[in-house]
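Translate sequence into structure tokens.
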Amino acid sequence: MSDASVAAEAGAETQVALPTIFWTFLTAGAISFGGGVVAYLREYTVSETRWLDDDAFLDALEISQTLPGLNAVNMSVIIGDNLRGIPGAIAAVVGLVLPGVIVIMGLGAVWQAASNSPLVKPFLIGVAAAAVGLLSTVTLQLGHKQFARPLDLAIIVATFLATSILRVPLCFVLLVIGSAAILLYRPGAKHENLEERARHLRERLLHRHFTHLRH
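Result follows.
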């Protein structure tokens, strides 16, 4: 078992204080922008506090993305509930959304006056770029295992092509590709042989490549 998994189990056995949950999610909500909040949630709940390991965080993210509502709020409910039940979920959600509510209320009061400023648009573009970068980092950190598995990679590519290239509505993508993924990974599904053949193929290609370089 990995060190992260051991730490996560130890954290689950030790009850986390509600103020600690609130402050952790308050910090994530205060310094993150847009979708980048997921990156900060991983940083605080996996890397720093070790409340979760990467697999548990990915499970929470997967569930959050298949449910209505904001991913970050859904994740706050799941993580907070895992840590301290309903009080933990409430503390996590309030901590996460409170900074945004305060900032948005303040900005809303001055938005009409500043919306035509030439500085606003470049600022928003920069924030969007930072959020994309944070999400890309989280994708690579959490998805490195999936990128190495042919079946997972095929599902990723199919989802990307359907949503980004073919512009298929997300509900149909979830219905078709999601159902296919569940069917492929159902208990007793025979896809281990594909993974094993792919691993041997990678090893043969790498061996051939290094042999070619030596000669």
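Note: Residues 71-114 form the longest helix (44 residues).
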